[in-house]
Amino acid sequence: MTTRPLIVALDFPSKLEVHQFLAEFENESLYVKVGMELFYKEGPQILTFLKDSGHKIFLDLKLHDIPNTVKSAMRNLASLDVDIVNVHAAGGKQMMEAALEGLDLGTRAGCERPKCIAVTQLTSTSQEMLQEELLINEGLESVVVSYAKNASKSGLDGVVCSTWEVEKILEACGQSFLTVTPGIRLKSNSVDDQVRIATPEEARNRGSWGIVVGRPITKAENPLEAYKIVRNEWEGK
Ligand SMILES: O=c1ccn([C@@H]2O[C@H](COP(=O)(O)O)[C@@H](O)[C@H]2O)c(=O)[nH]1
């Protein structure tokens, strides 16, 4: 598996669809993302199944609450033995620090603490929505970079952002700060509800650490073939 992962978003209603999807990949070890839809239906057991099948896991629950609640929740998530967890940077620095404290408390001796990253602005958010609905009167890029700096100052390992903010974030937070970029589309794909989209090649050229790809693979007529096309473009083959 590449050190700059292609993370497949398992946005399925239940474990049945997950099993059907993964069956096509035979023995390939994937980096998968489990989000709210699947986790709220199946609970931690789905993570055990994925780990036992040899996959790495980004548990994408996007915590956003008061610091004490996030700390306690992260303490529990730490015991699930996943590779990445996340919060919303909009929760603020104190909340992000609390998330790390909870993870440190919950990580079992001898195990690695899950990496913790913060969502800056969702890739479905546009400049217009930022201003008109969220009432944030800054440029979107500057808001994203500013939230990334808060995440970095709080000790987090990286952020979720769009491909188009990666360069500025790496300049501001250092080249080893992780940038995970969803909103990835091949030229032939539909945009769906995403706004700040990029191709796998653009993500690679802009320096994304990892890309998250859901529907372009999971809804493809041939998911394994779609996965290989995305992976080849991401890896520059
Ligand atoms: O800003 C964000 C944060 C998370 N996501 C998640 O990534 C996948 C993208 O799925 P696609 O089908 O490739 O659009 C999905 O699970 C989102 O919840 C994001 O898109 N943007």
Describe the structure.
This protein has 237 residues and is an alpha/beta fold. It has a single domain (6-235), classed as Aldolase class I (TIM Barrel, Alpha-Beta Barrel), CATH 3.20.20. Helices cover 43% and strands 16% of the residues. It has helices at residues 15-23, 36-42, 45-52, 67-78, 93-106, 127-132, 140-153, 166-173, 200-206, 215-218, 223-235; strands spanning 6-9, 31-35, 56-63, 84-88, 115-119, 158-160, 178-181, 210-213. Strands 1-2-3-4-5-6-7-8 form an eight-stranded parallel β-barrel, surrounded by seven helices. The protein is globular. Residues 9, 11, 35, 119, 122-123, 160, 182-183, 192, 194, 212-216 line the site of the ligand O=c1ccn([C@@H]2O[C@H](COP(=O)(O)O)[C@@H](O)[C@H]2O)c(=O)[nH]1.
Mean pLDDT over the full residue set: 97
- Identify the CATH class: Alpha Beta
| CATH architecture assignment | Alpha-Beta Barrel
Strand order of the largest sheet: 1-2-3-4-5-6-7-8
**What is the CA-based Rg, rounded?**
17 Å
Number of domains: 1
Give the termini separation: 15 Å
Family: Belongs to the OMP decarboxylase family. Type 1 subfamily.
Protein name: Orotidine 5'-phosphate decarboxylase
InterPro entries: Aldolase_TIM, OMPdecase, OMPdecase_AS, OMPdecase_bac, OMPdeCOase_dom, RibuloseP-bd_barrel
Enzyme class: lyase
